[in-house]
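Reviewer comment 2.1 asked that we show a complete input and output for one of the modelled complexes. We chose the uracil case, as it is the one discussed in the main text.
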Amino acid sequence: MKMRLDRMLSEMGVASRSELREMCRHRHVTVNGKIMKKSDTPIDTDTDEVCVDGERICYEAFSYIMLHKPAGVITAVRDSREKTVMDLIGGRVRKDVAPVGRLDKDTEGLLLLTNDGELAKRLLSPRHHAEKEYLAVLDREPDPAWIPRFAEGLDIGDDKLTAPAMLADSPAEASVPEAFTEAPKVLLTITEGRYHQVKRMFSAVGAHVVYLKRLRMGSLALDMDLPAGAWRPLTLTEIEELKNS
Ligand code: URA
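Response of the prediction step:
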């Protein structure tokens, strides 16, 4: 794609256009090995090799990032007081990525960030029934009688019952903070994303969620090798599967 050097580098989150003007003037930027002193130089992102301080910067129109959200950060792009998930995403990523949906401040687990609005819309729209799977630690033993109630839909105080949801035993290997290893755990799969939905669904059957972690969104599963607070780009296969699901 043909575009100006400064636009390409600012979209990729390297620096603002005015900062890039200075960086070019001070010989930090090369294109195909040649120092580029003018930041408005036209380039071809498909064929030109752009480096900043020797680091290759590749252009991508869309970025897809998996974050293992830790507890204690809010799902927002910016906030004047609280630490946000964007504060955890350092390095060279597109500056227009945003979280797809939100997790509560105390919820951990899979958070997808992207600038692909079409994919985000599809994953969030209740009409598309994209599954979201949560591991919930409860303050009491689950009752088997809850299974049909979750499947039929619960009254959580909204206009409509919740869409059918699947409640199951949590896998024995599910990792939770040490304080909760002995506590009752369940897996809940929902297809909507209402405010505090999982907590309100358990509250409707008389249980309290003491720990919550999202394990999957559509075809995308949380990478168990990714520690809380860490992120990585999605693989090409993960992106294809998400788009085709
Ligand atoms: N449901 C909740 O109650 N909280 C979350 O963070 C996500 C789903």
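The first strand starts at residue 2 and ends at 4. We note this here for comparison with the apo prediction described in Section 3.2.
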